[in-house]
Structure formats: C-alpha cells, structure tokens
Amino acid sequence: xxxxxxxxxxxxxxxxxxxxxxxxxxxxxxxxxxxxxxxxxxxxxxxxxxxxxxxxxxxxxxxxxxxxxxxxxxxxxxxxxxxx
Length: 84
Prior knowledge:
The protein is mainly alpha-helical. The protein has helices at 9-25, 31-38, 43-55, and strands at residues 59-61, 69-71. The longest helix has 17 residues, at 9-25.
C-alpha cells in the first residue's frame, strides 16, 4: 500500500486561496491570480500545482479553465476486510 505524501506548503497556500476566493467570488481565480497570490510567476508552475491537487482529488474543474475549479471534500481512507 502506497501512502500519499503530505501537501507541500505551496499546495496548502493554493488550497487556502481557492477556499477564500470561491467563497468571496463564487468561482475560482485565474492561474495568473493564483500565481500572484502565492508567489509563483510561472503560469506553468501554477498549472502543475493545480494538476497535483486535482490528481489527489482535492479539487476538480467543470470546464477547461482552472477558474472553473471546485473544492472537493476529502474522502476518508477505505477500511475494511482485505481479500486474500
């Protein structure tokens, strides 16, 4: 069984930003707005961090743009009987 690494400081900052931004504006910020808020000048770096959060199931997006992203509630780890 493989354990996921904890979120990086940058990923936590992006999640905090997304929570507050979506609460205030009703939709996600643009990649440039995220970068400016968390100290990343490269939009590619921001997109990479967002993709990592999406891969972990912490965010999703309804469209092609990252401004359509939504926060997902984390799913509890599965516990139960293992098959042999």
